[in-house]
Write a structure and sequence with these properties.
It is a single chain. The chain has ten helices and no strands. The chain is mainly α. The longest helix is centred in the first third of the chain and has 43 residues. The chain is elongated. The relative contact order is 0.05.
């Protein structure tokens, strides 16, 4: 410590250290038993954690991914895939493999038109990957559209937009879905807002059907005038 100070500071620092040295030594002596007990507890906890990781957790995680990968390679169609993914998700729900299985089950169930079941499994999925999370939220919104629960569909589309954080591949596509739901509700003003957001914030976005965004905007304006 003293080597980093000039001589005057060094003397002051040493004086301060010496003035507290006796008190510090007595405190260590008084608390020696507590320190030993604390170290012992730490060692026991560390041993338990290592045992959990190597004896239970790692083999458990490995089995979960083996089960998930088995469905990936063996499932013949959406029907068998859904059943097998659901089984993996139910058995390993708290593991990453179980969460991926829940997402895959949701996709397979959606493809079968089993929207309520798909929502159940999609809600079991979670991830730190914002893009993957956003896509799962979009699919959940699509389920609610097919269930004609339009308010909940919009809720999930808006969650997806927030999670996508301006991603140009996701946000305009979700805004289109949201606009379609507003149109189904007869809320043409809200649909117009969605189309205007796409035009203003994502000018490079192309619909692929030959229509320009201005055509959609004009259509909504005309509908509002009816």
């Amino acid at each position: 410590m003293a080597s980093h100070r000039d001589k005057h500071q060094e003397e002051t620092a040493i004086d301060r250290m010496n003035s507290h040295l006796t008190d510090a030594s007595s405190k260590i002596a008084d608390n020696k038993k507590i320190i030993i007990i604390a170290v012992g507890i730490i060692l026991v906890v560390a041993a338990f954690v290592l045992s959990y990781l190597f004896i239970y957790k790692n083999p458990h995680v490995e089995k979960a991914f083996e089960a998930y990968n088995g469905v990936e390679t063996q499932a013949l169609n959406d029907s068998t895939a859904a059943a097998q993914y659901m089984e993996v998700a139910d058995q390993y729900g708290s593991d990453d493999a179980g969460k991926l299985a829940a997402l895959s089950a949701g996709e397979a169930l959606y493809n079968q038109g089993r929207y309520e079941e798909a929502v159940k499994y999609l809600k079991k999925f979670s991830t730190k990957d914002d893009i993957l999370e956003a896509n799962a939220l979009v699919l959940t919104g699509d389920c609610y559209v097919n269930l004609e629960n339009y308010d909940e569909a919009i809720n999930y589309f808006q969650k997806a937009i927030r999670k996508a954080n301006g991603n140009p591949q996701i946000v305009p596509r979700v805004l289109l879905k949201e606009a379609n739901v507003y149109d189904a509700q007869g809320n043409f003003g809200k649909a117009l807002e969605c189309y205007q957001q796409i035009k203003n914030n994502f000018p490079e976005f192309k619909l692929g059907n030959g229509m320009e965004m201005d055509a959609y905007i004009a259509r909504e304006i005309a509908r509002m005038g009816e």
